[in-house]
Amino acid sequence: MLPAAMVPGDRDRKKAVKVLSLLRRAAEVSGWARGGGSDRYLPAKEICRSLSLDPEALYKAIASLRGLGYEIEEDAGRGFRLLSSPDIPYPWELAAGLSTRWLGRTAMFFPEVTSTNEIVLQLAREGAPAGLVVVAERQTAGRGRRGREWLSPAQQGLWFSLLLRPALPPEKIPPLALHTAGAVALTIRELYQLNAEVKWPNDVMIGGRKVCGILMEMRADAGGGRHLVIGIGVNVNMAPGELPPEIEATATSLRLELKQPVCRLPLLQNLLVNLERCYDQFADESKHADLMDLARRLSCTLGREVVVRGTDLAPAGFAGQAVAIEADGSLKVEAASGEVRWFHAGDVSVRPER
What we know:
Elements: H1 11-29, H2 44-51, H3 55-67, E1 71-75, E2 79-84, H4 91-96, E3 107-110, H5 116-125, E4 133-136, E5 157-164, H6 175-192, E6 196-199, E7 203-206, E8 209-220, E9 226-235, H7 254-258, H8 264-283, H9 288-297, E10 305-309, E11 318-325, E12 331-334, E13 340-343, E14 347-350
Helix pairs in contact: 1-3, 6-8, 6-9
């Protein structure tokens, strides 16, 4: 059974979201972003008349919004005004500023789950549409590649999973993890001017430290088709001293790099725009070369001395120079002895530049 999700579809939630929309519009018109004045209040009678609500339903909606973290002030003579919104990517907030065509148009938010990938895998089996996005405030059993734990504390990151139903044959799907990392790195560069890079096969790095991990899982449908779930975890607002000691030397967050907190909602919206563009290109095989060019341009692996582990081709590890990312997404590594191997998967350690 799925945990309780926050979606804008139930009747009471719809009313609350409509009240929020009116309060926000009133605040913005009166200069909310600039501080505004007393005209930010919206009379209760006006809200009830606009939305065909009775006073009891209005107060129930206000209480619901406050419970979700919205700060709403009431003045007996002037009505209600919105003072602040929480930095939480609720589905109605996501939809309000989302410019994608299909990705994220169906969205769910969970305060806590074991893993967003597990939720989407279950929903996929039940026939959920491609483009579904599931976001969690916290994961209790977030997973990275090869079964590793992915730490997912509340209010500190974006932990979300996407559902795709690709028409391409399974053997052509693996490079999509690399391209997903490319889309994330590109978004970080565009929004924050940080030098985000892609470490093969699917990590996003800043200054040699990991800021984003990606987990891709494919399953067969009962009807013979396939669904693909892509889990993305971005370290956003971990402050100094908040990274666990075991990853402090190898991980970072956007806040640590920028020296200031980051609002998660516009980050998620921009990520979905670039991810949708990436997946649209991937669905068109004539665009695969463009995607691979981006992956190579953003790579922090190419041209570096690396060690590849965790693969049958190199059970004890294979050291050499990463000389190419091939068209199929494989990494070409040449050892000092001249031996060359191609890896389609594996854990890569990039040696520091001398």
